[in-house]
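re: ur question from yesterday

yeah so i grabbed the chain u mentioned. its 313 aa long if i counted rite. heres the sequnce exactly as i have it in my notes:
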Amino acid sequence: MDSRKNLDGLAVGVMLLLCVLWSLQQISLKAAAGDIAPMLMVALRSGVAALLVAGVMLWRGERVQPASGRWRPGLLVGLLFALEYLFVAEALRHTHAAHVVVFLYTSPIFAAFGLHARLPAERLRPLQWAGIGIAFGGIALAFLGRGGSGPAAAMLWGDALALAAGASWGATTVVIRCSRLSQAPASETLLYQLLGACVLLGVATFASGQTTLHATPAFWGHLAFQALIVSFASFLVWFWLLRHYLASRLGVLAFLTPVLGVIFGAWLLGERLDSAFVAGGLLVLAGVFVVSAHGWLEALLRRRPHPSTAPRV
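ran it thru and got these structure tokens back, copy pasting raw so excuse formatting
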């Protein structure tokens, strides 16, 4: 029997805090870019967080067991996680952090497509197809509603990379759900992802020459936030929430993250958002929300009284 429960005040408060932290992730990477390239920052933070997660696993008595066969999909999710943040890091060099956080959170769309193809229980419902149509209409508006030359072309390239990061994140979800990792402890899956990002992005950093690092107080502050707060603590708290509360309810609240990312990007980084992106971004978020929260929305629609039975006033 599923012992997970509906959200209470504690869960809502913790989720709001997590949304703030996750929305600041791209803002922090962009703000620290003068001291360290985003790619190198992600490689370093992943290495630090991997050590911390490994320490937690040792303390709990958890072990990675090669005989389980989970290391094979573990390698794949490590590659996909590294690819996701490779795209994020490069996107932040060309476009606004607000754009990155919105397009990154298209991941449920790509996950829904993959799960639809792999798992009969995850077949897309009509409401989800409608949400996908809304989201892709928003993507088209955000891309086609702006110019395509000079700085605008560079920004469009960054937006495309951020969208590719969302696709990589979605593919990671599909691999986890459709492999032996679905039965693995969350800490083991997180460890595979962090190690993949540390190793592969470390190699990519040196291959691309993005190795400049200025060890300023701001750099140390951003690294501490990225490694200790975002990549380690926030994900452990998130997995604790998933063990105790209904994932569908948590997922609805998680969509505050891209909204807050846009707000913080404009406030903290002074990013100016053009009307095409704002209109397209709103459609993207609306579509993704419909795809992810379709069960909750369908339950609301079923509870609505039929017009013929509604009380007259």
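noticed a couple things. Residues 35 and 215 are 7 Å apart (CA to CA). also The radius of gyration is 20 Å.
anyway ttyl
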